[in-house]
Amino acid sequence: MRYAVFGTGVVGRTLAARLAGLGHDVVVGTRDPEHTLARAEADDRGNAPFAQWLAEHPSISLDTFDAAAAGAETLVNTTAGGVTLEVLAAVAPAHLDGKVLIDIANPLDFSKGFPPSLEPVNTDSLGEQVQRAHPALRVVKTLNTMNCAIMVDPARVEGDHTVFLSGDDADAKKSVTELLTSFGWQDRNILDLGGIETARGTEMLLPIWLRIMGSAGHADFNFHIQGV
Amino acid sequence: MRYAVFGTGVVGRTLAARLAGLGHDVVVGTRDPEHTLARAEADDRGNAPFAQWLAEHPSISLDTFDAAAAGAETLVNTTAGGVTLEVLAAVAPAHLDGKVLIDIANPLDFSKGFPPSLEPVNTDSLGEQVQRAHPALRVVKTLNTMNCAIMVDPARVEGDHTVFLSGDDADAKKSVTELLTSFGWQDRNILDLGGIETARGTEMLLPIWLRIMGSAGHADFNFHIQGV
Prior knowledge:
Two copies of one chain form a homodimer. Chain A is α/β, with parallel strands linked by helices. The first copy, chain A, has one domain: 3-Layer(aba) Sandwich (Rossmann fold), CATH 3.40.50. Helices cover 34% and strands 21% of the residues of chain A. Chain A contains ten helices and eleven strands. In chain A, the strands form two sheets. An eight-stranded mixed beta sheet of chain A has the order 3-2-1-4-5-8-9-10, with helices on both faces. Chain A has a two-stranded antiparallel ribbon with strand order 6-7. Chain A is globular, with a radius of gyration of 17 Å. The two termini of chain A are 32 Å apart. In chain A, 48% of the residues are buried. Strand 11 of chain A pairs antiparallel with strand 11 of chain B.
C-alpha cells in the first residue's frame, strides 16, 4: 500500500517508520520540504533534525502535502490538530477524493498553558471537522488516545488494552482494522464506537491522558475498556 | 460514619443502600421530602417511586438537603450536575464546613439532545466549581466514570479496572480511599490523579462512556488504565 504520512514530528516519524518496516511505500508530507530539511537543530522535545531521521530511513521520501497525497492510496494525519484543516486545504481535492484518511491528530490548545485544553470540544471534534470539510475523504479517527510508540507496538503495554475506531465508512474502518492488526493489535482490543461523531469521545480522553501521564510519570500506559 | 447522600435517583439509592449495608448511618437529602414521598409513579427510567424504595430500606431516612447535611460527617453528591451548585447553596454553610464531599455528579447537558454534552467542560469542571463555591468543603471527585452498580460492587466487572480520585485535600482522599476499599476496590485500581483540577479529565470521560455503552449495548464495563 502507498501511504502519505502528514507531519514530520515524532508521531509522523513513528508511523512512517513502522509502515515502511511493514513493506509499504511511504512518503512524508510537509508544508515546505526544503525548509523541513534545512533545520539543523533538534526540536524543543529533543528529537533529531528531520533530515537526520530521513537519512536513517532511506526507503522513505519527503514531499509537499499535496504531492505526497497525490501518489498515496491512504493518508495518515499526524499534524498538530490546530493546523490540520489548513494542511488539508492545501491539498488538491482530486488528491483526496475517495481516499481513507487515518486521523491521529488531537485538537490540543496550548494557548492557555499546560496541560492544554481542546478546541473544538464537546459539541464538535477535529475528526468531524475534517470529515465535514472534505466529504470525499473517508475519515477514520483512531490511535489518538495513546503515545505513538504504543500505536505501532501495542505489546509495549502488558495485557489487553484498547484502540478505538470512529468513522462513517465501514469499508474504510475495515481497512484500518487490517492495518492495526498488522501493527500487532488483537481483534478483541479494537473497539468500533460508530460514526465519526464518536471522535468527540476519543478526543476528550486527552485531558485525562495528560493527567495520568503526570501522575504516573511516564507515557507507557493505555486505556482498556474492561467488560465489553 | 454518618453519611448524607444528596439525590434520590438510582445513583443516590445505590450508594445509600450500600453505605447502610456496611453499617453506616445514612440520610438521603432531597429538596422537599414530602414531595419526594408523594410521587406514586415510577420515574422515566422505570425506577420505583422513592417511597417504595425507602420502605424497603428501613434503616435509611429522608430529609432536606440542609437537615441531612447537618447530621452527617461525610456528604455524597449524586444530584444531576446541572443542579448541584443550587442544591449546595441551599445548605447552611455551617453544615458543610470542614466536611468531605464525595462528588459523583457529572455536568451532563441534555439541552441539545442525546448523547448529552458537558457544561462546564474543558477549561473548568463541576468538581472545581463545587470546590470554588464552598472552600470549606473538602471535595473529592470519584466514581463518576462508571455505572452506579459497579461503583459499589467493582467485582461486577471481571478483572482489574480503575476508579479515579481528584481532590486538593490529602486526608479527604485517604478517607475516601478507605471507603472505596470497603466497597471492594483494590488499592492497585484506585488512581489518584492529583488536585481537584484533574476532575476535568474524569468528567470528560463521559462522552466516550456514553458511546461505548451505545456500542456495547450495556453499562457493565469500566475504564482500566493498563501499564500504570
